[in-house]
Amino acid sequence: MTPSARDRWTARAALVLPVLVVVLLLVTAGRRGVWMVLLTAAVAVVVLAAGFWFLRERGALRLLALAVVVAAPLALLVLFATRHLLWVAIVAAVLLFAAVAAGRTALRPDPAEWTLPVREVTPAQRPFVIMNPLSGGGKVGRFDLQRRAEELGAEVALLDRPGTDVQQLARDALARGADLLGVAGGDGTQALVAQVAADADVPFVVISAGTRNHFALDLGLDREDPARGLVALRDGVEARVDLGEVNGRPFVNNASFGAYAEIVESPAYRDDKRGTTLDTLPDLLRGRRGAHLVADVGDGTPVEGPQALLVSNDPYEAADLAGLGRRSRLDRGVLGVVALRVDSARQAVALLGSRHERGLRRAETLEVVVTADRDEIPVGIDGETVQLSTPVRCTSRPGALRVRLPRDRPGIRPPRGRLDATALWALAVGRSPVRPSSAVPA
């Protein structure tokens, strides 16, 4: 894509703004400006290290670490204020923030990298929709989804009894002649019915009636008004997207291993999420709890002993912290991998500059095999933890799911570009840069 004049000027702004910060510091603070930068960097390191100790320790050490996390930035602000440099620090921070935003905007990916291809289709004649009245705090009732779906000709089944086999409900509907399956519920229920739709090669409609609706978000659907998704039952377009599977169980978002799965598995988690997390993390970070995991991501270098491992149905954008943001495409036919291991405060600080390669690892692969020193391990599948026998095998079914989407939908937010000084300079001087992909690098 030929860069536009707007992209070139945005890239120039991204390069000029940091220079203005340096000029501001030299003009207003002189040599003190250098100490401002060094002191701010030192405080950032101290806060990150103390944050790690807060998560890893208990009792007095945890309280001391918390005090440092709170007090260090406040002390820095007080020091700047007493030296009449607080306004300089604020202006410099705003300029740097603007520089980062401009750089990511200038290097945003080509729309072809994140626009999901769709095709025209004929309307379904006998749609079948499963609805969970309790999901999302009662969105099915609040948005009158059952009545609206039935007015569009859909047969609706309510999950009003515990233990209902949603996959069997969907299979029975197909046996009666249903030619489209839909779900108004959480991502876990979406995944189960999506697997049935993929196996039968019938269209699938996502109605964002869950709590978080990450799958709907990455499909560009309206998460605030799930009723808009019902339009796809009669008038929509269709896209082919991937479906993940872990030991044969489907997932539309991700399968998580390690800390998250261990914490969520705790019986106390539902009633006290924060307290359970803080109580469990020290043992997990010290290796006193949880299985020792080894992940084979297919590149010949196993991921040894990750404290947290996330395998996603298509990669998350690497421009977001630790790669845990949005997926710009759901049809790339690969799994995304994010593995984290931090054993010390020094390693936690190294992650700030992405220098600790063993600590944070990203990859793309067709298959992930997780082994452990136990016969069974907890695995969080789209937010719900289950026990699976080892080895645990994660695979992708490329293009397996036919998703029916409403024509009128918010769409996917353009992914942010990854900062790259060489690409910014090329764009600023009028050349076409090689833009870093927003997806996880292979």
Describe the structure.
This protein has 442 residues and is an alpha+beta fold. It has three domains: 5-108 and 416-428, no CATH class; 119-242 and 400-406, 3-Layer(aba) Sandwich (Rossmann fold), CATH 3.40.50.10330; 254-398, Tumour Suppressor Smad4 (Sandwich), CATH 2.60.200.40. The protein is built from 14 helices and 17 strands. Strands 1, 2, 3, 4, 5, 6, 7, 9, 10, 14 and 17 form an eleven-stranded mixed sheet that branches. A six-stranded antiparallel sheet has the order 13-12-11-8-15-16. Strand 6 and strand 7 form a beta hairpin. The chain is globular. Mean pLDDT is 87; it is low at 438-442.
Low-confidence stretches: 438-442
Biggest beta sheet summary: 11 strands, mixed
Instruction: Output the CATH topology of the largest domain.
Output: Tumour Suppressor Smad4
Q: Which percent range describes the beta-strand content?
A: 15-25%
Helical residues, percent:
25-40%
Q: Please state the second-level CATH architecture of the largest domain.
A: Sandwich
Q: What does the radius of gyration come to?
A: 25 Å
Report how far the terminal alpha carbons are from each other: 23 Å
Compute the number of helices. 14
- The total domain count is 3
Mean pLDDT: 87
CATH class of the largest domain: Mainly Beta
Alpha-beta classification: alpha+beta
